[in-house]
Design goal:
It is a single chain. It contains five helices and twelve strands. By secondary structure, it is α/β, with parallel strands linked by helices. The chain has two domains: 106 residues, Beta Barrel (Elongation Factor Tu (Ef-tu), domain 3); 105 residues, Rossmann fold, CATH 3.40.50.80. Strands 4-3-7-1-2-6-5 form a seven-stranded antiparallel β-sheet. A five-stranded parallel β-sheet has the order 10-9-8-11-12, sandwiched between helices. The longest helix has 13 residues.
């Protein structure tokens, strides 16, 4: 008998080798935040039980495409270990994850893997934060802003669509929305032009791979944030 069940390939095998936790999430609801931004509600399938949820915590979700499963990382939104529920937000574009999310209905299930996510707020607390991202990293940015409370934060965000600027962002931060042009050029320019002495701040960056590298360099050289006080992680790659 031929097994037509989608496979996770070598990535799944490696994660299993490292003892990753495997779970099944079940869709319980959906909220269309904007034309290009969608939140799905899930029963977490026990994924949060016994785990300490940290700011910007993310999981790998496995999306089907042509008989294979492909992993994409997504930040936990509103995680509730007691209620065994979690939300996931999708910045919609033409990709396998977005296509799955747009079609998802209550009762649909998807596999999730927990391994690799780690972040702790810096100690002692910094004087402020410089945060740079886009709609793909917005859930993580909101998670971080919620965790730092009233600590000052300057946030640069790349908008892929006109209505992105209406998306909810942490209340206590100074927000700058930048139109996203090819390869994040406008965002890099805005971060550079807004430079100030932030030697006692913490820098957090999550954009596409090329923009993340460029911005991290600016934070080190122009904002004078020490390398050890910068968390920089590419959340996506151009063309992915």
């Amino acid at each position: 008998m031929v097994d037509n069940k989608p496979t996770r390939g070598w990535q799944g095998a490696v994660l299993k080798l490292f003892g990753a936790g495997e779970y099944e999430l079940t869709v319980t609801g959906r909220e269309q935040i904007s034309e290009h931004y969608l939140r799905l509600n899930f029963n977490a399938g026990g994924m949060l039980a016994g785990r300490v949820v940290h700011p910007t915590m993310w999981i790998r979700m496995w999306f089907p495409d042509n008989g294979k499963l492909h992993q994409r990382g997504y930040t936990l939104v509103n995680p509730d270990p007691a209620g065994d529920t979690v939300d996931i937000e999708f910045a919609l574009h033409d990709g396998i994850a977005s296509r799955w999310a747009c079609a998802a209905q209550p009762g649909d299930t998807i596999g999730a893997t927990v391994l690799g996510s780690s972040f702790a707020l810096p100690t002692p607390p910094p004087a402020g934060y410089v945060i740079v991202g886009d709609t793909a990293s917005l859930p993580a940015i909101n998670s971080l802003l919620d965790s730092i409370g009233e600590t000052p934060a300057t946030v640069f965000l790349a908008a892929a669509h006109d209505d992105d600027v209406d998306l909810p962002v942490g209340e206590n931060a100074e927000i700058f929305w930048i139109d996203r042009r090819v390869s994040g050029t406008a965002l890099v320019e805005a971060v550079s032009e807004g430079a100030y002495d932030a030697e006692d701040h913490f820098g957090w960056v999550a954009c596409d791979n090329r923009t993340t590298r460029a911005v991290a360099k600016i934070l080190r050289e122009d904002y004078r944030i020490p390398r050890t006080s910068i968390k920089a992680q590419a959340y996506w790659a151009e063309g992915a």
